[in-house]
Amino acid sequence: MGGRSDDARRGWDEGALEFAGLSRVRLDSLLQELLGRVDEIMESEERLRALLDAVVGIGADLDLTSILDRLAKAACDLVGARYGALGVISADGNRMVRFVTHGLTDDEIAAIGPLPQGHGLIGLLIDQPEPLRLKDLADHPLSYGFPPNHPPMRSFLGVPIRTREHAFGNLYLTEKADGAEFTEDDERAVTALAAAAGVVIDNARLYADSERRRRWHEVTTEITQMMLGDFDPQDVLQLIATRAREVSGSVVGAVLVVEGDELVITAMDAPPGFEDQLGRRIPRDRPILGEVLHGDEQVVIEDLALLAESLGRLSAVPGLANLGRTILAPLPAGANSTGGILMVAARRGEPLSVTPGTDLVRMFADQATLALDRAQAQRQKSMLAVLEDRDRIARDLHDLVIQRLFATGLQLQGMRRMVRPDVQDRIGRAVEDIDGTIRDLRAAIFELHHQPGATSLRGDVRGLVDEYAAALGFRPQLVLTGPLDSAVPAVVRPQILAAVRESLSNVVRHAQATMVKVEVEVTGEAVTARVTDNGVGIGPGDRESGLRNLRERAASLGGAVRLESTQPHGTVLELCAPFNTPSS
Questions:
Q1: End-to-end CA distance of the chain
Q2: Where does the Histidine kinase/HSP90-like ATPase domain lie (predicted)?
Q3: d(CA 536, CA 507)
Q4: Cβ distance 559 to 577 under 8 Å?
C-alpha cells in the first residue's frame, strides 16, 4: 500500500511540474503578445500625435505657399520618407500647374532640370485620384525612369488631396527610412493628413480670395477718387495696369486701347525687357485678340510663350519667353470709347492669384472703360467751353468789329468827292485795305467755328498752297471765302483739293508764272475753286489733255470746269460743284 501511494505522489508531482512549465510558456507568450499590443498602441498613439501635430502645423497660417511647403515636409516626417512632393493640378484636372518639393536642395533641383509636367506615375494619380503604394517605382508599367542627376528612389506612396470634392493635387512620398516599404498604416496616416490638408487649403484659398476682393475694393476706391476731379487718362490707365498686376499676382499688366484697325499698348506695368512695348501698335484682327474684342468673356491662355513661339512672334518680344498663364479681358465699348483689352500675365510655371469663377480682371477692365469714357466726357466738356467762347468772339467780331469797319469804309468813300485827287487815291487804298481786313475777319470767324482736331478744308488748302510755294519760287495768294468747313460736304472736299493740286502742278510745269492766286469760296449752295496765273497761257495742244481729269472730277460732282486765258497773258481755271452732288 505504501509503495502505491508513493508512486501516486510521485506521478502527481511530475504532472504538476509539467503543468507549471506549460503555464509559464503560455504566460510568457501572453506577456509577449501583451507587450506587442502595448507597443502597437504606443506606436499608434505616437503616430496619432504626430498626425495631430502635422495638422496643427500646416494650419499655422493661411498663406497657401507656406501651407504647401509645410504639408510636404509634414507628410515626410509622418511616415519617415526621405523625399516628398506636392503637385497642384489645374482647375480642369488635366495638367500640373505647381510642384512643391521637400528633401532636395536648390542645387539638386537645378541639376535635375524642369519639374514634372504630369506624365507617368504622376499623371496616373491625376487621372485616377486614388491612393497608390509601391514597393519599387521601377516595377510599375507607367514608370519610365528618372532624368539625369535625379536621386535614386524605390518605395513610393501617393495620396490625392481634395477640397470640397474637387481634386486639388497629390502628395508624392518616396524612399522610406531604412529601405523599408510604406505600410498600410502609412497610407492611412497620409490619407488622413491629406483630408485635413484639404480643409486647410480650402480655407486658405477662401481667405486669399476675400483678401483679393478687399484689395479690389481698395483699388476701386483709389481709382474712383482719381477720376472724381480733373485727371490725366494716361495716369488712370497706368494705375489700372499696375493694380491689376498686383491683385492678380501677375508679372505683367497692360491696357490696350482700340484705335482704328489697331490695338495700342497705352499703359503697362512690367519688369525690364518690356520698356519698348509701350505705344506699340498691333493689328486688332490677329488670332485671339479679335476673339476677345468681339466677345463678351475673358480669354485664358495657358502658356503665352508657347503660343507666341507657335505663331513665330517670340523673337519680336524677348520678354514673352518668360510669360505663362495669361488672362485677356475685353474693355467694353463705352459711350465715348471704342473698347480694348486688359491683359495680365504670370511668370511661366507660376499661377495667377485669380480664383476660377471670379471676374476680378473683368472688373478692372470695366474700370478702364469707365476711365476712358470719363476722360472723353471731360475733353468734350472742355471742347464745348472752348467752342462756346469762340462763338461769343465770332459774334462780337461780326456784330461789332466788322460793322464798324464797314461803316468806316462807307464814310471814307463818301469823303472821296470832297478832297483832292491825290487824297482820293489814298482814301481808295485805305478802303481796299478795310475790305481786305473785313475778308480776313470773316475768314477768322469761320475758323473759330471749326472744331479743333477735326478735318479742315481751309487748313488743307493752306497746306497745299504752302507745299507748292517752294516749287513756284513764291507763295501763291490765297483767298478763302465763306463757311468752307461747315457747308462743303465731305464727299466734295477731296475733289476740290485734287483740282487745286492739279492746277498748281500744271502752273509749276508749264506756266512760267510770277503770280498765282488761289480762291476757294462758298456762294449759295455751291463751292468754287479758282486758280489764276500770269504765265504763258494755254498752248494749242494743252487744252484737252489738261482738262480731262478735271472734267471727270467735275462730272462726278455734278459740276463744271471753266478754263480761259486772261489778258494780257495767263490762265484762269475754275471748278464749280453744287453741294447736292450725285455721289453725296
A1: 154
A2: 491-581
A3: 10
A4: yes
Yes or no: say if 412 and 427 are a contact pair by the CB < 8 Å rule: yes
Q: Is the peptide bond before 131 cis (omega within 30 degrees of 0)?
A: no
CATH topology match: 59-209 vs 229-454 = yes
| CB proximity list for 376: less than 8 A, separation 6 or greater | 336, 337
SS3 72: helix
226-238 burial, b at 16+ Cβ within 10 Å, e below that, comes to bbeeebebeebbb
Reported as a single tens digit per residue, the pLDDT across 274-319 is: 777 888 888 888 878 888 888 777 888 888 877 777 766 655 666 7
Tell me how long the chain is: 584
Angle, helices 64-79 vs 2-58, to 10°: value is: 160
Integer Cα distance of 383 and 388 in angstroms: 8
pLDDT at residue 335 in the model: 58
What's the rounded Cα separation, in Å, for the pair 57 and 74? 8
Distance CA 87, CA 71 (A): 11
Cell numbers at 315, concatenated: 523673337
Q: Quick one: which of 273, 276, 307, 272 has its CA closest to 289?
A: 307
| 360 band by pLDDT with thresholds 50, 70 and 90 | low
Q: What is the DSSP letter of 117?
A: -
The DSSP-derived string for 170-227 is EEEEEEEGGGPPPPHHHHHHHHHHHHHHHHHHHHHHHHHHHHHHHHHHHHHHHHHHHH
pLDDT in tens, 390-446: 667 767 766 777 777 777 877 887 787 777 777 778 888 887 788 777 776 766 666
Distant-in-sequence, close-in-space partners of 483: CB < 8 Å, separation ≥ 6: 446, 449, 522
One-character DSSP codes across 365-390: HHHHHHHHHHHHHHHHHHHHHHHHHH
Beta carbons of 298 and 332 less than 8 angstroms apart: no
pTM for this predicted structure: 0.49
Question: Cell for 156?
Answer: 513610393
> How much is the pLDDT for 235?
82
Phi, psi of 327 (to 5 degrees): -115, 130
* C-alpha angle 30-34-35 in degrees, rounded to nearest 5: 120
Whether the Cβ atoms of residue 577 and residue 561 lie closer than 8 Å to each other: no
Is residue 538 within 8 Å of 507, Cβ to Cβ?
no
Q: What is the CATH number of domain 59-209?
A: 3.30.450.40
Q: How many CB atoms lie within 10 A of CB 326?
A: 22
Domain boundaries, the chain: 1-50, 59-209, 229-454, 455-584
The stretches of 473-492 forming alpha helices (DSSP H) are: 484-487
Considering only the top CATH level, what class is 455-584? Answer: alpha beta
Contact residues for 304 (Cβ-Cβ < 8 A; gap 6+): 320, 323, 324, 325, 326, 345
Q: Residue type for 4, please?
A: R
Q: What is the spatial distance between Cα 377 and Cα 263, in angstroms, rounded to a whole number?
A: 21
Domain 229-454 in this protein, CATH class: alpha beta
Residues 6+ apart with CB under 8 A from 78: 47, 50, 51, 54, 186, 189, 190, 193
Return d(Cα 471, Cα 465) in angstroms, integer.
Answer: 10
Question: What helix, strand, coil percent values describe the chain, rounded to 5?
Answer: 55, 20, 25
